[in-house]
Structures are given as structure tokens and as C-alpha cells.
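User: I'm curious whether this sequence folds into something compact or stays loose and floppy. Could you predict its structure so I can see for myself?
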Amino acid sequence: MLWQEIRQHYPEQWLLVEALTATTDANKRIVDQLAVVDSFGNSTQALEQYSELHKQSPDRELYVPHKPRTTGHNREAVAWHCASEV
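Assistant: Here's the prediction. I'll summarize afterward.
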């Protein structure tokens, strides 16, 4: 799914998402396609699930975005700062 579609389907929710296609540009991760793993009512639940899945599969590119706190890079992609590159 595109970020815009996810925002429409999951308004004001904490999400656990997985990047399906992504690139890095200028210390930002540009995620073009995402899959929603789960949605949560609060950040604690989302981060607990993230931690559990990350331990099981550290190679998966998982994120816990919250709609108001995540800015779109363009209409079809979302950008996050890459912690390992900042």
C-alpha cells in the first residue's frame, strides 16, 4: 500500500508497518510500498509488538509510524530519517 492509502484506512492509529520497497537518499529512508502488520490504540502496544517481531526477524524493515508525526516525502512515498546514518 501507499502511505496515503494507509492514512485513509487507519486514521489516528499507531501502526506497525513493514517496508516492501525502499531506498535511501540524503540520510532519509524513502519507503514506496508498505504493508500494515497491525494497528494499535497506543504506542506501548505498537512498540512491544515491534520489539517482539524484530527479535524474531531482525532483517525485516519494520516501523511504528503515527500519522500526525510522519511527514510524506511526496504523494507516493514516506520518508524517515535513518538512525544508523544520522
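Summary: Residues 3-81 form one domain. The longest strand covers residues 28-40.
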